[in-house]
Design brief:
F-type ATPases have 2 components, CF(1) - the catalytic core - and CF(0) - the membrane proton channel. CF(1) has five subunits: alpha(3), beta(3), gamma(1), delta(1), epsilon(1). CF(0) has three main subunits: a, b and c. It contains six helices and five strands. The chain is 59% helix and 11% strand. The chain is elongated and about 115 Å long.
Length: 298
């Protein structure tokens, strides 16, 4: 009977765990929908902003703004790492950490999110700054992050600034991605951004031409408009990577919690079957003992 009690306790424990994972799955699903809508909503704006900048680039000198200034290769690099504050989201942070260690082994770090902040901090890298962002992500909270990255680049402390984040592709697919932020690559402004799930070799050659074909009038001058749009571009790039990462987080957590709930239900069935077998064996054993005792009394 001790074995039966142990199995009953295990069944009860697994049922309680299944209730928790099911609740977390529902919460993540609700947050996932909002985060996905927020991430997708900004992509058209980013594409249009790129097209305007392409046209601007053709009307000014490419070195006219310090954010476009190319530095020498092999210079010091700063990496903005966007991870999650909470766990239980599958291998999301692990995959991003592996890509960072493989592709950016020497870069200094600015973090958003606690998980990789702790992990990268133990690796001996220089941690320049850390930020916390609310959920859902307000655009205003991306500005201090972009301002710091821009300031460190303009001061010459770093020759290159990149962003490591998890690109939202679909509910089941999240891809670790590293995107160059500064200096702004003028030659790639007309291309689809990496976080749109389209690789650069898939971009149509007509996209760049279409951006140039539009006739813009810049007032007071193209240079003044460029001074305003480039900081906005940097701010929006940081914001978009934050919302892409948040959509990936909630999607991965929803999928992970669903898998945990399904596994718990499967485990409960196996334990219940084992419990019934032991119970039936115990009942059979008792019946045999009673029958044996009755025959002995005859």
């Amino acid at each position: 009977m001790a074995n039966l009690r142990d199995i009953r306790r295990r069944i009860k424990s697994v049922k309680n765990t299944a209730q928790i994972t099911r609740a977390m799955q529902l919460v993540a699903a609700a947050k996932m929908k909002k985060a996905q809508d927020q991430a997708v909503a900004g992509r058209d704006y980013a594409d249009l902003l790129n097209q305007v900048l392409v046209n601007l680039k053709e009307n000014v000198d490419e070195e006219a703004h310090p954010l476009l200034e190319k530095r020498e290769e092999g210079g010091k690099e700063l990496l903005l790492v966007v991870s999650t504050d909470k766990g239980l989201c599958g291998a999301l942070n692990t995959n991003l950490g592996k890509k960072i260690r493989a592709d950016k082994p020497q870069a200094d770090i600015v973090t958003v999110g606690r998980k990789l902040r702790v992990q990268l901090g133990k690796s001996g890298r220089e941690m320049v700054a850390d930020f916390e962002v609310k959920d859902p992500v307000p655009f205003g909270e991306a500005r201090p992050v972009a301002k710091l990255l821009t300031q460190l680049f303009l001061e010459g402390k770093y020759d290159k600034v990149s962003i490591a984040f998890t690109n939202f592709v679909s509910t089941l697919t999240q891809e670790p991605t590293i995107l160059q932020l500064l200096p702004i690559d003028a030659n790639s402004l007309g291309e689809k951004l990496d976080y749109e799930g389209i690789s650069k070799d898939q971009v149509k050659e007509t996209d760049h031409a279409a951006a140039l074909a539009k006739d813009y009038l810049f007032e007071p001058s193209a240079e003044d408009v460029l001074d305003t749009l480039l900081p906005l571009y940097v701010n929006f790039q940081v914001y978009q990577t934050l919302v892409e990462s948040r959509a990936s987080e909630h999607s991965a957590r929803m999928v992970a919690m669903k898998a945990a709930t399904d596994n718990a239900k499967k485990f409960i069935k196996e334990l219940t079957l084992e419990y019934n077998k032991l119970r039936q064996a115990a009942i059979t054993s008792e019946l045999l003992e009673i029958t044996t005792a009755m025959k002995a009394m005859e």
